[in-house]
Amino acid sequence: MNHFRNEDALVKGIARHFLPHRSHRLRLGIGDDAALWKPTPGFVSILTSDWFLEGSHFFRTKHPPDSVGWKCLARAASDIAAMGGTPGCFLLNLALPPDTTGKWLKSFLGGLHRAARSLDCVLAGGDTSRSRRILINITVIGEVQEGQEVLRAGARPGDVLCVSGRLGEAEQGLRLLRETRGRVNQKNEAIGKHLYPQPRVALGRWLAQRDLASAMIDLSDGLSSDLGRLCRASGVGAWIDAGKLPLPRGTDRLESAQQLALHGGDDYELLFTVSRRKVASLPATFRKLELTQIGKITKGRTMRIVGKDGAEEPLRAAGWDPFR
Amino acid sequence: MNHFRNEDALVKGIARHFLPHRSHRLRLGIGDDAALWKPTPGFVSILTSDWFLEGSHFFRTKHPPDSVGWKCLARAASDIAAMGGTPGCFLLNLALPPDTTGKWLKSFLGGLHRAARSLDCVLAGGDTSRSRRILINITVIGEVQEGQEVLRAGARPGDVLCVSGRLGEAEQGLRLLRETRGRVNQKNEAIGKHLYPQPRVALGRWLAQRDLASAMIDLSDGLSSDLGRLCRASGVGAWIDAGKLPLPRGTDRLESAQQLALHGGDDYELLFTVSRRKVASLPATFRKLELTQIGKITKGRTMRIVGKDGAEEPLRAAGWDPFR
Fold this sequence. Notes:
The structure is a homodimer of 324-residue chains. With 324 residues, the first copy, chain A, is an alpha+beta fold. Chain A is 29% helix and 28% strand. The two termini of chain A are 39 Å apart. β3 (43-53) of chain A pairs antiparallel with β2 of chain B.
């Protein structure tokens, strides 16, 4: 793809990139004032938007453009997964410096297209502009059958607290990425998880359809921060067994592994609660993905963590926050 | 509103600002992973996103924050109007420098809230982040009864070309704003139109419901650019009678008024085509808003303009383009 002489040419170039990927529900895509999307009768629409900004969420010198494309859609789709829904289409808002409309953009669109196909989420529209830094905002429209949506607010004292996958690996990957000079080894598991997170859409839907999860949130900013949000929304507290945390592999010191698992961001795993009555129906793995019971929901509105020695400590929200 | 200690507090502050304004169709607003919106059966969703960036779309020193809030939503809603639809809810994406989270934000949210109420478009969600410049992206979800949507692509040779309101006034207002030192006179009509555009939602819906418009687009970048888009989408050309253009008031020279009307951006009026058979049903005004027949659609795929002396000239797209 070459540089573009004007906005219409850029938009056309982007649209062409996504052409083979369609949906009969997208009645009208790029090229009009707005897109037309046909919702499924009996479903509610799920709406979510996410920033992905150069200098805050990614660095042009560190993150391959292909990963930026993948990740900006994957993380927005993760919010849909956390409601128990399915992504349908997305709006891509791109503001680009002139020197990124060539090779960088082509590779970015490649990664975005792969994510879109993998999620079965079609490009419906968006907006383009110029900027000094690369600015990305993605809106995803998903849906869930009415009554099956899983909120943050449904956790009750006694519910078992569960997570998918391993925690802290993406943060570990980010640290490795920062330390690396030159090309990064994308085959490293932690780096791969940081660059190409897999939103847990199938798991979220499965839990919602079976009415297994009483509350759910995706882990984007770190367990301690996101658990705090789930607890506040539900008006409850939580108690975590440190020994049960699915720690990242490849860290020597237990303590630092635990810190990564508690406060590391960008995992895009699902954190959910299951009532004691239903927890026997929860398998240990879902399509090879580990599901781990890490603690329980408590009545007292605090978060506490208990170590192997049995000592209990308060758990403070210390995940990622752009305003801190 | 005070400064915020973290992202959750900022989001809460924004949500509180919009609290009295609700919709029974918004099943879940700010505070979960995503919003839940119930579409009306038999309608299609209309999706649109727009950038509104400091330094490109507005200037912190020139544009009152209240106007930035009003306009960022109004212009996105204008895209919904251009499809013949009605806005329903919106997602607000804000990235702010720390020194704007106090007074600036409060005034911005005031203007945004007024626009939201006037459009009956409720805040459903969004994302916040930090940035060196103020970055705004707005997604509006609207809807239109299936089959009533008006596309850019429906214009046929012989159709009459019509516009609402006066053209070029917003551009004139921008120029006055640029020339003004200190506080601007917001009561000046042109400045008012630049700062607080009125998307033509009622007109767009009325045209769509009566099946009067064969094609429609909103005038955001200027008549010459947006007419070009409508023509390309429809595979037609257009012929404009310069003497019929609804020129901005208060310009001394006819020539410059005409240039403003042809190429000035930000009017957010509707440009639409009506078949000859139906044009007699089109009133001269719609709720006090002038509707003017300015030309016609032609078979030859060029845009031409004829002056008072009868001389015809080609019309080149010369409206606003961020990449030019």
